Amino acid sequence: MPRISIDAIIPGMVAAADVATPDGRLVLPAGQVIGPRHLDSFRRLGVTEVDIDDASGGAAPSQDAVNEHLDGAAAYASEFFAFLDPDHPVILALYRHVAGAVALDMARGVALPSLEERRAVNVEHLADVMPMEIAAPARLVAHETELASFPDIYFKLKEEMDSPKSSMGRITALISRDVSLSAKLLRLANSPLYNFSGAVDTIDRAVALIGMEQISTLALGVTAINYFKGIPPELVDMRSFWRHAVSCGLFAKLLANAAGVNNVERFFVEGLLHDAGRLILFKKMPYASTDALLYARENRVPVVEAERATFGYIHTDVSKPLLAHWRFPSGISDGINHHHAPAEAGNPRQAAIIHVADLLANAMEISLGNLYVLPPFEASAWESLGIQTERLPGILAEFEQQAAKTLSAFV
Fold first, then answer.
1. Is 304:314 a contact under the CB 8 Å cutoff?
2. For domain 132-407, which CATH number applies: 1.10.287.180, 3.40.50.720, 1.10.3210.10, 2.60.120.200?
3. N or C: which end of the chain has fewer CB within 10 A?
4. Which residues contact residue 406 at a Cβ distance below 8 angstroms, ignoring those fewer than 6 apart?
5. H/E element holding 5?
C-alpha cells in the first residue's frame, strides 16, 4: 500500500484508504477508483498524498475491455455534442476520439460525473459587486482595474516592444529582472511547446532560439494570465482553469502550424487568454455567474449561450474593454475578442484558429469530468484554415503527447 504524491497518480488507480483533507474531512472513500476530476478536487482541498492499492497500478485495460464500454461511452459523449452538426467530418472525427477516451476511462473503472455532481455548490455567501441591471462590461472592467494593479513588468515590456530603440539585449535584460517571469518562460522553452534538443537555461538563449518578438509576446501573455487570482473556487478551481487555458493555447499553436501561419507564439497567447472576460465575470459577478453555469447544466446548452441568457452579453464583450485597458496588441486582442464569432473579426482566419482551438480543448476535457455542452462550431472557420480533416486525429494525438508537460510549466 504505497503512499504517493497526487502528481504521480494515474487515473484508474484505486485508493487503498480513505482520502481526507488536512482537517479530516472525507474526500474519497477507500476502494474508489481515482479519476481526473478527483485529482482536481485533491489539489483544491490541499490533499498532497494518497494511499494507493498495489494491485491497481494504473495499468492500461485490454482492448476487449475498452470495446465493452464503447456503446455507453458513445451515448455519454453524444450529450456534449448536442449543439454541433454530427454529420460534419470534423465533428464526427472529434466525437469518435472523445468517445474512445471515455471508453478507456470507463474500462479503467473511472466513474463519470453523476447527476448530483452536476449540481452547483452553495454560493449564498458570494455577492456580486453590483446589481445585474448596471453590470455592463465596461463598468465591470472599470471596477476591476480601479481596485487591482497590473504588474509593472507588463507595461515596461509593452513600452519596450513599442519602442523604435527596442533590442534583443534590452528585452532580455527586462525579462531577466523578473525572477518569476523568467522561470516560467524557461519552463515553457524547455517544454514540448518547443521541443528543443538541448536544455534552454538562460533567457538569452531562449530569446536567441525563439526570437525577440515571439518571446516578448509570450512574456506579455504569461504576465497577463498570472493576473487572475482570487477567483471563487466554487466557480472554478485554478488547476482546471490552467488546464483549459493551456490546452486552448497549445491547440491554437498546433492549428496555426498546420495552417502554415507565421509567428505561432501569438496564437498560444491568444488561446491562453481567450477566457479572460469570463474570469472577470467569475470574479466580479460570482452569484450571477453561478446562475449562468446552472442554466447551462440544467438546460444542456453551451456556457456561452447561458451567459447571453443571464447577462445579456457574453465573456468576449468583457474581454474587449479589458484588453483595451491593458493596451494589449490589437492583433492578439482581435482573436480573443472574436473567438465565438470569427467572421466578425478584423482577421477572421486568426480568430478561426482560436474558435476551433477552444472547441477542441473543451472536447478533450469531456473524459476529465467536463460538465458542459460543447460551444457552437462554425464550419466556415475550419474551412478557412485549409487543414484537411484527415489531419485532425494527428493534431489530437500530438496534443495528448504535449499537454501534461506544457501544463506543468504553469502549475
1. yes
2. 1.10.3210.10
3. N
4. 188, 191, 192, 193, 246, 250
5. strand 3-5
Helix axes 203-210, 168-176, angle to 10 degrees: 140
Q: Which three cell numbers, joined as nine digits, stand for 164? A: 523604435
Q: Using the CB atoms, write b or e for 70-92: b if 16+ within 10 Å.
A: beebbebbeebbeebeeeeebbb
Question: pTM for the full model?
Answer: 0.82
Q: At CB < 8 A and 24+ separation, what contacts does 327-332 make?
A: 327/155, 327/158, 328/220, 328/224, 329/217, 329/220, 329/266, 331/266, 332/217, 332/220, 332/221, 332/266, 332/269, 332/270, 332/273
Helix axes 276-284, 286-299, angle to 10 degrees: 120
User: What is 208-223 written as a DSSP string?
Assistant: HHH-HHHHHHHHHHHH
**Separation of alpha carbons 94 and 359, rounded Å:** 10
Cα 276 from chain centre: 11
Owner of C-alpha cell 534590452:
170
Q: Which helix (H) or strand (E) holds 269?
A: helix 265-273
pLDDT in single tens digits along all 411 residues of the chain = 567 777 667 777 788 888 888 888 888 888 777 877 777 778 778 888 888 876 555 556 778 888 888 899 999 999 999 999 999 999 999 999 999 989 888 887 777 776 555 555 555 556 677 777 778 999 989 888 776 667 788 888 888 888 888 888 888 998 998 888 898 899 888 988 888 888 898 999 988 888 888 888 888 888 888 777 767 776 677 778 888 999 999 999 999 999 999 888 899 999 999 999 998 998 888 889 988 988 898 888 999 999 999 999 999 999 999 999 988 888 899 999 999 999 999 999 999 999 999 999 999 999 887 888 999 999 999 999 999 999 999 999 999 888 888 887 776
3-51 CATH, one of 3.40.50.10300, 3.40.1190.20, 3.90.105.10, 3.90.650.10: 3.90.105.10
Cα atoms in the 13 Å half-sphere on the side-chain side of 40? 18
